């Protein structure tokens, strides 16, 4: 799913005005300039996590889950120091799932640079917008 | 650095063998106490803005923090446009509409100093494609034009190591291949039979030696003390000075522990410093092409090794320092190395930096405008006060006025999930350990005289950190069972530690920290003899301390004062995560 399509969906489902969203989102602190520059590229899971987390924080006033140690079981959580909290928040809120790479046990992988289907991304947006403050 | 591979290193001062040599430094070193100031990251993450930064600078003044030494206002990640403009860095025009120079001018107009951020890799940690790699000259010119006084340089997307966001296969530069044997003029010497392994990093496996290189210190798993790398050494006797050919039986890889880059030295002279061709698998062995070496009459130590993990990183930081000097002359710029302890910077950081981070971040749950962010007292990873403290507290011998400072990351005072006692102990720990004191909170929440202000503006604690003698405290006792409290890496937090720090006026600061999350009713004391035996050699007047008939005690936490004639100093209880800090002055 392209970043721009993702943002169109987010706007459509949340009631945000799509026109000018790249600038307005930056002013409001939940989008970055890279989102505009990458608008015609497929959106990565770490960027979905960032946008949804910051959208909830900045636009919906939903505070962070304080204790994220349950997310430490994501084996790639600390591969990304700047997105670790975004990933933890959407994972712990069950907005975005992790993948279990192990057949027998548990080897959970968020897959930061992975890309998901349109249906999955739309589902993530819906789950995010259904969040209640903790 | 060359395109596609690390540079040839011609300057022996960048070599592993020179790390301990303090007489031949790369740059003129300025004696400097730990930096104090405010950094945007823990407070606002990538969401920092010019407006917020100006407010923080104003608050530093309003709260009187500048008078206590907090003077550096540092922009962390998230302040640049995500791509270069005509090959140059540029401010994000939404977040920093006036540009960096205007912000620097404003900060300087307040009598404060201005700091910025970059990465030795190709991108910043945020992903912005403006890492300094390949643009060292241009970026340093811009930093000088922006009138910076401080630079923090991170390690994401680094080309020559498997650092954060970098290619995992970059580990090929960081480790030697697996080595089964070497052959010198027809005679074969086997790694697991004929060689000596230095350090504790290398591992012998079914007939070969692996992990020839340097520990990755990013995570809290390994002690920072002692030799942190391994070489394979073959002692070979020669009847005369002569040239010889050496082949290495190796299997190369591209993963942590098994690399492709090999260094060969005989004693202290390097003869090979190159990538070997990959083998089919990391345990498919083959012979290298012949390597020419020189043997001397007598015993020769043939060293099979790879110190490039440290040497490359040092080289990258040194290049930035060199370019800052080239662009700015003698402009006084604090250089904050932030490679997360990955390459054991306590060994080499003194060559380039004024401080070096010792671990990955103290928190990943940074705040934003209206959100304090979260921190923790303890955690299994680096993300807590005690994770950072537990490592830094045994690193005192690596720091000093002419070396630089261990940096256990920025302060998390003011973030959620820590209480007042934790904040206070955190501040006291960082002050005792001579850590840089970089505030990481939204200062708009602070009022003069409130609880947080009392901690961050505690003149007694700050005086410890900024004491001109410039000596990091040493842990002289711990209730954890160990023989060497000053060197043992302890991650079990169920304990009380006692730190001692010599001060310039002949006093000693003693700090008792309850590291655990339970109250402790336990008498813990240290004797005068113990203090002298552990830090006497660093005290300005140990004889006076030894012969004093009594001591003046100032409690730096509750501010009580008294004279005592006892020969030991201690506590009988400490609340959970709490501390007692006293200044002991011989009378």
Q: What can you see in these coordinates?
A:
The complex is a heterodimer of chains A (134) and B (587). Chain A has six helices and two strands. Chain A has 134 residues and is mainly α. Chain A has one domain. Chain A has a two-stranded antiparallel sheet. The model of chain A has no long low-confidence stretch (mean pLDDT 94). Chain B is α+β, with helices and mostly antiparallel strands. Chain B is 20% helix and 25% strand. In chain B, α2 runs parallel beside α3, α4 packs across α7 and α10 packs parallel to α12. Chain B is globular and about 75 Å long. The chains are: A mainly alpha (134), B alpha+beta (587). The interface between A and B is medium-sized, with 26 and 35 residues.
Annotation, overall tally of beta strands of chain B: 28
Share of residues in helices of chain A: 40-55%
Number of strands of chain A: 2
| Main sheet overview of chain B | 8 strands, parallel
Helix content of chain B: 10-25%
Number of domains of chain A: 1
The SS-based structural class of chain A is: mainly alpha
Shape of chain B: globular
- Radius of gyration of chain A equals 14 Å
The CATH class of the domain at 44-161 and 311-465 in chain B is: Alpha Beta
Fill in the CATH topology of the domain at 44-161 and 311-465 in chain B.
TIM Barrel
N-C termini distance of chain B? 58 Å
The average pLDDT of chain A is: 94
Sheet with the most strands, sense and barrel status of chain A: 2 strands, antiparallel
The most extensive contact between chains is: A-B, 26 and 35 residues
Strand proportion of chain A: under 5%
Please report the number of helical segments of chain A.
Answer: 6
Which blocks of ≥5 consecutive residues of chain A have pLDDT under 50?
A: none
């Amino acid at each position: 799913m392209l970043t721009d399509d993702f943002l169109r969906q987010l706007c459509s489902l949340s009631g945000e005005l799509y026109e000018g969203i790249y600038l307005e989102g930056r002013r409001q602190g939940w989008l970055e300039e890279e989102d505009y520059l990458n608008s015609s590229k497929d959106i990565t899971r770490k960027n979905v996590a960032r946008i949804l987390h910051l959208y909830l924080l900045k636009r919906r006033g939903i505070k962070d889950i304080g204790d994220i140690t349950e997310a430490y079981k994501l084996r790639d959580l600390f591969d990304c120091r700047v997105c670790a909290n975004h990933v933890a928040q959407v994972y712990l809120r069950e907005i975005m799932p992790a993948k279990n790479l192990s057949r027998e046990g548990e080897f959970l992988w968020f897959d930061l640079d992975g890309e998901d289907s349109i249906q999955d991304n739309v589902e993530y947006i819906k789950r995010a917008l259904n969040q209640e403050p903790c | 650095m060359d395109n596609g591979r690390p540079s040839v290193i011609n300057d022996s001062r960048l070599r592993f063998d020179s790390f301990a040599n303090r007489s031949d430094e790369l740059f003129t070193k300025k004696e400097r106490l730990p930096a104090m100031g405010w950094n945007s990251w823990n407070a606002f993450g990538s969401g920092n803005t010019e407006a917020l930064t100006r407010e923080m600078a104003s608050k530093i003044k309003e709260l009187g923090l500048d008078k206590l030494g907090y003077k550096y206002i540092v922009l962390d990640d998230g302040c640049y446009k995500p791509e270069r403009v005509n090959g140059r860095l540029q401010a994000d025009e939404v977040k920093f509409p006036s540009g960096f120079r205007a912000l620097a001018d404003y900060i300087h107009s307040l009598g404060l100093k201005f700091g910025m951020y970059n990465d030795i890799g190709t991108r910043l940690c945020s992903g912005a494609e403006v890492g300094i790699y390949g643009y060292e000259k241009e970026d340093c010119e811009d930093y000088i034009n922006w009138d910076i006084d401080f630079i923090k340089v991170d390690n994401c997307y680094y080309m020559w190591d498997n650092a954060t966001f970098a290619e995992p296969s970059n580990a090929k530069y960081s480790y030697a291949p697996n080595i089964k044997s070497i052959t010198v003029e027809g005679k074969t010497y086997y790694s697991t039979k004929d060689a000596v392994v230095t350090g504790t990093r290398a591992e012998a496996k079914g007939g070969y030696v692996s992990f020839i290189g340097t520990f990755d210190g990013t995570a809290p798993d390994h002690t920072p003390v002692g030799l942190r790398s391994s070489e394979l050494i073959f002692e070979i006797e020669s009847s005369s000075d002569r040239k010889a050919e050496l082949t290495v039986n190796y299997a190369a890889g591209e993963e942590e522990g098994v690399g492709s880059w090999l260094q060969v030295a005989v004693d202290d002279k390097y003869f090979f410093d190159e990538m070997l061709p990959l083998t089919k698998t990391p345990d498919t062995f083959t012979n290298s092409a012949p390597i020419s070496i020189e043997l001397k009459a007598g015993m020769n130590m043939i060293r099979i090794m790879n110190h490039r993990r440290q040497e490359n990183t040092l080289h990258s930081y040194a290049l930035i320092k060199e370019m800052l000097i080239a662009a700015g002359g003698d402009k006084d710029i604090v250089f904050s190395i932030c490679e997360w302890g990955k390459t054991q910077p306590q060994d080499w950081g003194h060559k380039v930096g004024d401080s070096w981070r010792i671990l990955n971040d103290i928190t990943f749950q940074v705040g934003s405008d209206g959100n304090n962010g979260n921190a923790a007292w303890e955690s299994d990873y680096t993300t807590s006060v005690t994770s950072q403290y537990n490592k830094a507290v045994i690193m005192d011998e690596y720091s000093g006025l002419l070396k630089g400072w261990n940096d256990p990351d920025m302060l998390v005072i003011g973030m959620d999930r820590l209480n007042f006692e934790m904040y206070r102990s955190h501040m006291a720990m960082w002050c005792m350990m001579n850590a840089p004191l970089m505030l990481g909170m939204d200062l708009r929440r602070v009022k003069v005289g409130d609880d947080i202000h009392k901690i961050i503006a505690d003149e007694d604690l700050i005086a410890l950190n900024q004491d001109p003698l410039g000596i990091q405290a040493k842990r002289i006792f711990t209730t954890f069972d160990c023989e060497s409290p000053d060197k043992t890496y302890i991650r079990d937090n169920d304990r009380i530690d006692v730190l001692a720090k010599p001060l310039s006026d002949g006093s000693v600061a003693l700090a008792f920290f309850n590291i655990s999350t339970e109250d402790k009713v336990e008498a813990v004391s240290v004797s005068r003899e113990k203090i002298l035996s552990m830090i006497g050699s660093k005290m300005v007047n140990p004889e006076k301390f030894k012969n004093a008939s009594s001591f003046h005690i100032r409690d730096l936490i509750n501010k009580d004062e008294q004279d005592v004639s006892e020969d030991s100093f201690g506590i009988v209880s400490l609340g959970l995560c709490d501390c007692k800090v006293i200044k002991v002055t011989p009378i």
